[in-house]
Write a structure and sequence with these properties.
The chain is of the alpha+beta class. It is 17% helix and 42% strand. Strand 6 and strand 7 form a beta hairpin.
Length: 230
């Protein structure tokens, strides 16, 4: 082969390699995310709730505790204090699930209870619930009392029952003492749909998230039992 021909082949090969490298670089630049835009997206580690506290109709002692929970997981803890311009109250930071697995995500329901740790721990649920939303201010005045117990007779099979306790409660807490529950259904008149809760199903498949005073439920029980609602 002539020397000139070899030089031309080498030059063409180098040019082809450089052209391919340019195409690859263009594709990478096209599909790669804009790092500045990714970094600019806000992230939230917690949402702060605050307000007054009333226990059994009176202000509790300073130094007692308020707990914030996602289902049964404690995601915030604060001492009751005498707060200027507020009175006997609390300020609690409720952690995000990105900080501690199982804690709050956007739209999750937060429940609260009051704790007197001495001499032996006493736990009283609070009637109010909050929603984990980092875009809003969250003042929530808590009233915490000994829960009233209502008993309902359930028979094996299908039952029409009413939820009696005041306020609203996460469905997992409402059915926590009902070991014979197979499934519960509730009709939602606002959008004319049925919502269900199956304790054995994955959480994402359950469409019934909370129960409120006066709600009518269709409950399937695996055995006869007296259901203590509280």
């Amino acid at each position: 082969m002539a020397p000139g021909l070899k030089v031309n082949i080498v030059r063409k090969s180098v040019a082809l390699i450089l052209a391919l490298a340019g195409i690859v670089a263009l594709v990478v630049l096209t599909v790669s995310p804009d790092a500045s835009k990714v970094d600019a997206q806000p992230t939230f580690s917690y949402v702060t709730f605050y307000g007054t506290v009333t226990v059994e109709g009176a202000p509790p002692e300073v130094g007692t505790l308020v707990r914030a929970k996602i289902r049964d997981k404690i995601c915030g803890l604060a001492e009751v204090q005498d707060i200027e311009e507020l009175g006997i109250g609390y300020t609690v930071d409720v952690k995000a699930t990105t900080v501690e697995r199982g804690c709050a995500g956007y739209g999750d329901t937060i429940t609260f209870d009051w704790v007197d740790p001495f001499p032996e721990p006493v736990f009283l649920p609070c009637a109010q619930t909050g929603v984990w939303d980092p875009t809003k201010q969250h003042r929530l005045d808590l009233t915490c009392e000994t829960p009233q117990t209502h008993t309902v007779d359930l028979w094996q099979g299908w039952n029409f029952v009413e939820w009696h306790p005041d306020g609203c409660k996460p469905v997992e807490d409402a059915f926590a003492t009902l070991d014979v529950l197979d499934v519960a259904w509730q009709y939602e008149a606002s959008d004319q749909s049925w919502r269900s809760y199956d304790p054995s199903a994955p959480q994402e498949l359950n469409t019934l998230s909370e129960i409120c005073s006066g709600d009518i439920l269709i409950v399937h029980a695996s055995d006869n039992v007296v259901w203590e609602q509280q």
